[in-house]
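Data card: per-record layout.
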Amino acid sequence: MHDALASGVVVVMGTGGTIAGVSTTGRDQDYLAAQLDVTQLVAAVPTLATQPIESLQVAQLDSKDMGWDVWRALVQALSEALARPDVLGVVITHGSDTLDETAWLLHLLAPPLKPVVLTAAMRPASSVEADGPRNLADAVCVARWAADQGLAGVVAVLEGKVWAGTDVRKAHSRDIDAFDGGGAEPLALVSDGQVMPIADAVWVPPRGQWLQSMSALPHLPRVEIITSHADADGAVVDALLATWPASDERRLRGLVVACTGHGTWHRELEPALLRARRAGVVVWRSSRVARGGVESRPDDTWPVAGRLTPAQARVVLAITLALRAPPGPG
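The structure for this 330-residue chain is written out next.
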């Protein structure tokens, strides 16, 4: 590694999560997330002691409670850190539950300058099997390696695998090796401080559409997820439309439908979705199936979310509406 890169700073930003959790009973399953600050997480990794690391606590929460206020602060902190010439990249410690949503948001909004690496844990920091220290060490290693390679992009590093931020999703509720790419292969593997890229893997630079005007937004446009299932009808859609008047800034702006199969929904659901569309609500189709997503077809009359999970699609649609971009997953 080049001397300048070896001496460059990696900023580790903390947002809480299981990686910062502590057991309340001595059993791994009985823990409180977001109990340790990011300086404690860094201090628990001996290999980071000799590296130029800066720590910044952006938030402290269980990631199931993630929202726009934290995302807005995170993007602002990222923008400031990545603009510094001495910073090689940023590592973000995060809860596992919504890591995939944050990864997509950062892909859309983070400046396309340097590597941004998310990491998490499936065991609390107090566990004898804590996976957080290894994941954090690997994440810093990947940030430095990517900077050395001139790579910019949002990735997630978990259990020795590097996933594109646009692919990563939680695939198991309990296992330490809980993440995959929804059918996509990892970008690289990490072992003993060495990054081994996968042949033909491509890092996708962030779109970098962060606008200072977004920092003043009190919330993202309201986008909800509904699911098509046996016995589904339009009651939930109609209730959402009726909850806020058209003049209310909190009104429904978008719907992501977690469809059956390859983007189909119950016939009783469609009339309400048509009413929503006539009211100006943007409707996207995704799939509740774990793999494959929904591909567009020439005769489609409803936009599709591609390989995005419903949760990822909700983030993308909300940001699309906030940026006043033409509707479409893109």
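Known properties of this structure: The mean pLDDT is 94. The longest helix spans residues 132-149.

See the next section for split statistics.
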